[in-house]
Amino acid sequence: MSAIAAVPINDLKTQKYDRQLRLWASTGQTALENAKICLLNATATGCEVLKNLVLPGVGNVTVIDDTIVNDTDLRCNFFLEPSSIGRSRAECTAALLAELNEDASVTSMHKSPTELIHNQPELFDNFTMIIATNLHEKDMLTLSDLCDHSKITLIAVSSKGLCGVFRIQAPEHPVIDTHPENAVDLRLGCPFTELLDYVDTIDLDQLDQTDHGHVPFVVILLKYVNEWKQQHDNQPPASYSERNQLKECIRKGMRTVDEENFEEALANVWRLATTNTISSNVRNIFDDQSCENLSAQSNAFWIVARAIKDFVSNEGHGQLPLSGKLPDMKSDTPRYMALQNIYRQKALSDLEAVKSRVRNLLREIDVPEDTVPDKMIDDFCKNAAHIQLLRYRTLRDEYVTAPSKDTIANTIQMDENMYYYLIFRAAERFFDKHGRYPGAQGGTNSTDVNLLEQETRSLMEGLGLAIEESDAFKKAANNFVRFADQETANIAALMGGLIAQEAIKMITSQYIPINNTCIFNGIASTSSVCEL
């Protein structure tokens, strides 16, 4: 009987998470495994969120809920069984969620989220993210203050019937690896010296048919641009018309009608218009006071950002560090490897210059050199053209201190989903007055619709919004009341997917999360994102 070789743990984990590792790599997976998530109220939507976090390997999850399972819970929550009736909802849902992934630690606390928020706020310091579902507004505001003070990411969730709203509140959130669709930076509009020197070594007219068909399109474009400049006072083709003229010149240089490398050159003429790699988002980061005024308290992101800003002003000659990425293209192996090496060496040279500046800055602010890992500098330089910085308003800002009146007023004219946002908030006012939500036991639908409309008008008046008795407004109120404060399994599942996706973006610090509110309208199958 032959022995079966043991498979290393890391290999097993790689096989298990193969698909997602292709999305966010080992750094993202490590961030997920180190995350500590707290779910307040084990609602159907909340459990669907956790399902989509436990499956990809979030390390630690705690479910806090003091509710006892009843028949209503069974209708919409797939993480409850008939045997769960009469038992703790937190314990029952946590037990079934834990079965999804043995790598995740899923625990429960049969305690009131509201009491913990007001009486044991220090408990929440143990978590990196809190997902709060269907909390009352006053409790959510208190939790918002706690999370803001402790720099914890908060996702506030409300799901009723066929609609739902979720809102992200987080500390300053930089994203280095945004995974842009077009991350290639070839510098064709502003070629560097080493690239031009290589282009000069190739004479297209002296090449035989085979070699002519294997010249990389980068070389072809720069060759023809150089000829254009010689005929136009050293100016590149700037307008659409001039670039079309350049295309005609390139077409005339084709020896056969199907030279693929020349076709690639024609398809990439637009890249010649890109002479500056610095976007407005990156410039805003460079101009930020946190970048200008470094101190011992500055985090690594701002230190590297400042180093790159200084690089741009000096060694970079107005350009960001080169990423060094080269796309696939029609070429023979020797020429492609030569071109790839030129881009790689330029990228490494830029990287070393930035690293040197980072070390100098760390010495200036008297911070240990290991404060900024080399891996972070590498990633920053590779993605410098696409970095993002998100700053989130708090829920208290949105509800009390500085409501986004203009945003709501402008959005509601174009997007009927904004009525659902207002109705969700008005429903909290309804609850404060009547001790129940619109449509719940103890009221009649017609009466509650009128009362909910009144609360919504009052909210709109407080925000200085014009009140229009539109069909969309009345339809939204009727649909909210019709479901009597209940969740539906299909909307809970969809909302769970949306929220988990944004949570993973926040945890991994990859891809660009929303800022800050998402409204889903299951009746019209539409969603809206706005910053409130």
From TrEMBL:
<comment type="similarity">
    <text>Belongs to the ubiquitin-activating E1 family. ULA1 subfamily.</text>
</comment>
<comment type="pathway">
    <text>Protein modification; protein neddylation.</text>
</comment>
<dbReference type="GO" id="GO:0045116">
    <property type="term" value="P:protein neddylation"/>
</dbReference>
<dbReference type="InterPro" id="IPR000594">
    <property type="entry name" value="ThiF_NAD_FAD-bd"/>
</dbReference>
<dbReference type="InterPro" id="IPR045886">
    <property type="entry name" value="ThiF/MoeB/HesA"/>
</dbReference>
<keyword id="KW-0833">Ubl conjugation pathway</keyword>
<comment type="function">
    <text>Regulatory subunit of the dimeric UBA3-ULA1 E1 enzyme.</text>
</comment>
<protein>
    <recommendedName>
        <fullName>NEDD8-activating enzyme E1 regulatory subunit</fullName>
    </recommendedName>
</protein>
<dbReference type="Pfam" id="PF00899">
    <property type="entry name" value="ThiF"/>
</dbReference>
<dbReference type="InterPro" id="IPR035985">
    <property type="entry name" value="Ubiquitin-activating_enz"/>
</dbReference>
<feature type="domain" description="THIF-type NAD/FAD binding fold">
    <location>
        <begin position="17"/>
        <end position="519"/>
    </location>
</feature>
<dbReference type="GO" id="GO:0005737">
    <property type="term" value="C:cytoplasm"/>
</dbReference>
<dbReference type="GO" id="GO:0019781">
    <property type="term" value="F:NEDD8 activating enzyme activity"/>
</dbReference>
<dbReference type="InterPro" id="IPR030667">
    <property type="entry name" value="APP-BP1"/>
</dbReference>
